[in-house]
Amino acid sequence: MPMATAAGHRCYELWDPMPDEVREGARRFAAVQALNELVGVLQYVEWLDRAPSHTRRQMLMAKIQDEVGHGHVVARVAEDLGMPREQILLDYLEGRTRIHNIFHYSFATWEEVGPGLLLTNSAAITQFQSLAKGVYLPYARALRKVEREESFHYQHALDLTHEILTHGDAEQRRRVQEGFELWLPRILAYLGPPDTDTLHTNRMWQVGLKPDGNDEVRQAWLNKIIPVVRKLGLHVDPALVRQAPSGEWEFEMPDWAQVKKVIANGGPSSQRRLDWVRNALDRNAPYRRALQGVA
Amino acid sequence: MPHIPTDSDVYEVFAQSGHGTALSHVGSIVSPRPDAAWHLAKETYGRRDDLVKLWVVRRTDMIVSSAGDRDLLAAKTRMPYRQPGFPTARRRDRSAAPPAVAAPPERRDSGLTERRDDAREPRLTDLWLALADDLFVLGNRLGERIVDYIDLEEALAVGSIGQEALAHAGTILVLCGFDQPAVDARFFDRAQAQWQVSRVVERLTDWPSLVAGGLVIAAAVAVLAERTAEAEPGAEWLSAISAIRDEQLVHLDHWRRWARALAAWPETRTEFARAYAEVTECAGDMFGARPQSQGQGVPAAAPPAGPALAVTLHERLAVLVGDNGGPGSRLPDGPRTRTWGVGGSALADSLSRGRAIRDHYAPGVFS
Amino acid sequence: MNADQLADVVAGVSDPEIDVGLRDLGVLRSVSLTDGRIRVHLTPTRLSCPAVGEIARRVRAALAEAAPGHGIEVVWERGAWQPAAVTAAGRDALRRGGYRVAGTAPRCPYCDSEDVEQAGRFGGAVCKVPYDCRGCGSTFDVIGTAGCNAMLPTPVRGGSR
């Protein structure tokens, strides 16, 4: 068992005495991730019964199921740290927690799903790889497994995008390109505001739960994904993202005030997501009680 | 001005990987320029050492067949592929004509012994194909319930059961001799009048009815799998049929737990009793498929699915459906026949949404 | 290359989700070579395994690279996978990835504790059942128990079993 991270922080198992900040931080990270896994899939569920072939539909359903499975994993981690799992969706409905900016949008076309999925998935993988270096070991282990399972969906997203780019008509390919250009800035924003100068004052970095800064993770992601996108045949507009001679990626800085507004349930699909969750919980309340009452 | 990939940016790649072997198609790529296309193809599809030839051809410069040419290309040479011994049906691709019996005037409660328009008795294959239709719709309905958040574990249960319902539907078709394009054509391109779902399907809307519907469909598939396995114990397809039966028994067990819970809980008792009565009343047609395709020989070992078989299967179903610790079943005393074109809005919505994207693509893209 | 060497090539192909080779996972059944044509028999861990397409793609790519110029056919044997087919090396690789294989009493893959609890009947994938370790607080999956090997079919009147 590693007792210290590469950065020299002491590591903790569930029953170890640990600083309140570590316990609360890990609980919050895991609970927020659980919420995003659970509500984030609504984006894909909306396309499930339009998926255009038997195989594609099975793949999409497996992806949705897997994300909810990841929600189940991290919700259990949060639960061990004192967060009842029922609380996760209630906190969201009552405005105490928020979903990531990307989940406040919907896909307008099927062609957008491939690049959207590809960018979202690869960014999440990069982020989980970073967080998996954190000091709370049960969460770190869960993330390593989740990240590995995500790579399968990443392959699916590649295949989905490639299928349309090579077999779709000009209009359909154009929509894939537009989808890429629409989602790239959203994912850049998803990875968080620049923090290179302030990282060392971030308590989560100090206690070892946030091993890398946002900028570092963003650069790592761009290093991986841009060559892949180019190889697929998509055009990467230098106005959106370009590599400086130093190797550093430059990009158009997101409008952070706007991003903040979206996250505060001011995005195009924010209300739809809230309504869906509220209606589902209400509609199924008697059945939930039956399950709990009889069990 | 960003460069948007156009039709002429798509290239087909052919490679020969050894002397004395054929040059063969290895894939497609997108590239804005021909010279870049060749290099990308080399990078994507072959290591330099391994390739003897690499041809990269612009798609727009090729004369290619479309899915509509399938029959033309296959007409004289292709034999329907069979899994040895499994009751086989002819593959039907999307260009196939609807069955002659499509959308006859509806007749209720016509018993299996009654003289029908259909020229012959249904076979095991017909029963399987009809249950595959039910499983397909059920799988789709369950997929949406992953985000119903009854609780986290139930989300994973309906997702697993839904995925397996879809997979079993596809597996059944493959065992019946369908290839992948034919599976897609059958599930996506048939008009509702060509479907022969159970009357249970139109009820798969609210949760109590889904519990009841999931229960009867799982029970029916398990019963038919059991019977099919008995018919030819040494068959090559036995492991697939046994796996379907085993997985459906897990589903059945799950729905029975739900049935007991909903029946015991005061708040849901009445609603569930009504749903269960309505669904089981509809479930008399589980083994009431009409013949779906003409002119295929039945392998000798496959038992004919005459009225006697339907009665046996129906009796076995009645045991599973009646014995659930919940409310009473209203399963009819004997089997009922299925009717083309039922399924109500549950099937209609599923079909129209399934075509929403598919119809906008050239045939064959998603095959 | 002969059939055994080709089988070793396929054995070296990794599962798309877990760092384990196809032979070690019990997915590879056999490889034959007849008249320049390679036939690979595989079995998915579950009928509804969503990874079959990706696995077949990887197998083809690996064979095309190792033994260029052969026809390749991938045959899926449905329903043939058994937890017992996972090799000792496969069990090790799975344990390192946070998985255990069905068939014995599950222990935590991280701390080896026997103090584990099943966390539901279905997992995030059809081949996995979720568990919690009460020893170290880790979550893990058991592969291969979602089937009903442990479940008795409900008594069927007139049935032959």
TrEMBL record, chain A:
SUPFAM superfamilies: Ferritin-like. It holds the Pfam family PaaA_PaaC. It comes from the Bacteria. InterPro entries: Aromatic_CoA_ox/epox (IPR052703), Ferritin-like (IPR012347), Ferritin-like_SF (IPR009078), PaaA_PaaC (IPR007814). This is 1,2-phenylacetyl-CoA epoxidase subunit A.
Automatic annotation (TrEMBL), chain B:
Residues 82-118 are annotated as: Disordered. Residues 105-118 have a biased composition (Basic and acidic residues). It holds the Pfam family PaaA_PaaC. Coiled coil: none annotated. It comes from the Bacteria. InterPro entries: Ferritin-like (IPR012347), Ferritin-like_SF (IPR009078), PaaA_PaaC (IPR007814), PaaB (IPR009359), PaaB_sf (IPR038693). Gene3D superfamilies: 1.20.1260.10, Phenylacetic acid degradation B. This is Uncharacterized protein. It comes from Microbispora triticiradicis.
UniProtKB/TrEMBL annotation, chain C:
The lineage of its organism: Bacteria, Bacillati, Actinomycetota, Actinomycetes, Streptosporangiales. It comes from Microbispora triticiradicis. Residues 105-142 form the PaaD zinc beta ribbon domain. Residues 8-69 form the MIP18 family-like domain. This is DUF59 domain-containing protein. SUPFAM superfamilies: Fe-S cluster assembly (FSCA) domain-like. Pfam families: FeS_assembly_P (PF01883), Zn_ribbon_PaaD (PF23451). It comes from the Bacteria.
